[in-house]
């Protein structure tokens, strides 16, 4: 997938000339699983568009533990808020599978925003969406149990990465990564996954998770109530 030329990304409203200019200035690079793209507190000179793969966006606590904010996938842009705010990166980014990312210089982003209102609106909407998700996460941490949060995470992973014909999530995560999304200890996630399996809500095969009873998971998550 060429994220610059896709009709499903923030770049969909670029003119032909802007698209050509962007393609000339971008630089694409392949990253192995576990590669660090940028680090919290660093100064970034541009943003990244994910061509292929999945990248986790996270913050690191004082104890060194990761708190995963969200996963970015093909077509998503990351690192752009630091360019817009002129501040240091407020989070870190690391690949969780082999990926290809395209780097776009920051001055190119600013130029497109100044000269293309539809593109600027798309970037603003993307930023607002991420802010809304962050606010929801804060509320969940304060008001939901770990069981409810895990169920909600499984539902959101289904929505963002889909499931195959066997209802298997199309993203493979370690138990620690799941715990770092939910915001709890790894042991708690392992215990709850086992409970979900016993209750015939999910099935487990290594890192693969198959959703058996999606409606019940939605009910547990309280996401739609």
Commentary on this structure:
The longest helix is centred in the middle third of the chain and has 27 residues. Strand 9 and strand 10 form a beta hairpin. The chain contains 8 helices and 10 strands. A 4-stranded antiparallel beta sheet has the order 1-8-3-6. Strands 2-7-4-5 form a 4-stranded antiparallel beta sheet. The chain has a two-stranded antiparallel ribbon with strand order 9-10. The two termini are 36 Å apart. Helix content is 44%, strand content 22%. By secondary structure, it is α+β, with helices and mostly antiparallel strands. Helix 3 packs across helix 4, helix 5 packs across helix 6 and helix 5 packs across helix 8. The chain has 2 domains: 132 residues, Jelly Rolls, CATH 2.60.120; 77 residues, Orthogonal Bundle (Arc Repressor Mutant, subunit A), CATH 1.10.10.10.
Tags for this model:
single chain; about 220 residues; alpha+beta; Jelly Rolls; Arc Repressor Mutant, subunit A; 2 domains; 4-stranded antiparallel β-sheet; 8 helices; about 45% helix; about 20% strand
Helicity, as a percent range: 40-55%
Helical run tally: 8
How do the strands of the widest beta sheet line up side by side? 1-8-3-6
- From the 3D coordinates, which CATH architecture of the largest domain would you assign? Sandwich
* Biggest beta sheet attributes: 4 strands, antiparallel
CATH fold naming of the largest domain: Jelly Rolls
Radius of gyration: 19 Å
Which percent band covers the strand fraction? 15-25%
Whole-number mean pLDDT: 92
Domain module count:
2
Which CATH class of the largest domain applies here? Mainly Beta
Order of helices and strands: HEEEEEEHEEHHHHHEEH
User: What structural class do you assign from the helix and strand content?
Assistant: alpha+beta
Stretches where pLDDT is under 50 for at least 5 consecutive residues are none
Shape descriptor reads elongated
At the fourth CATH level, what is the homologous superfamily of the largest domain?
A: Jelly Rolls
The number of strands is 10
């Amino acid at each position: 997938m060429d994220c610059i030329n896709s009709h499903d990304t923030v770049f969909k409203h670029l003119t032909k000339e802007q698209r050509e200019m962007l393609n000339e200035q971008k630089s694409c690079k392949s990253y192995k699983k576990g590669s660090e793209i940028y680090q919290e507190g660093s100064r970034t000179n541009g943003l990244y568009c994910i061509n292929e793969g999945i990248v986790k966006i996270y913050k690191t606590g004082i104890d060194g533990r990761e708190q995963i904010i969200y996963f970015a996938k093909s077509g998503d842009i990351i690192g752009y808020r630091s360019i817009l705010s002129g501040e240091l990166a407020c989070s870190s980014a690391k690949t969780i599978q082999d990926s290809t990312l395209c780097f776009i210089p920051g001055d190119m982003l600013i130029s497109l925003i100044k000269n293309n209102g539809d593109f600027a609106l798309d970037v603003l909407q993307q930023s607002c969406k991420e802010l809304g998700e962050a606010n929801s996460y804060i509320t969940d941490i304060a008001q939901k149990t770990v069981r409810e949060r895990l169920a909600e995470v499984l539902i959101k992973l289904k929505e963002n990465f889909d499931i195959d014909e066997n209802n298997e999530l199309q993203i493979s995560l370690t138990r620690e990564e799941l715990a770092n999304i939910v915001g709890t200890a790894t042991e708690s996630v392992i215990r709850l996954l086992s409970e979900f399996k016993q209750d015939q809500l999910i099935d487990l095969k290594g890192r693969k998770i198959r959703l058996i009873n999606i409606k019940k998971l939605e009910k547990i998550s309280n996401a739609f109530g």
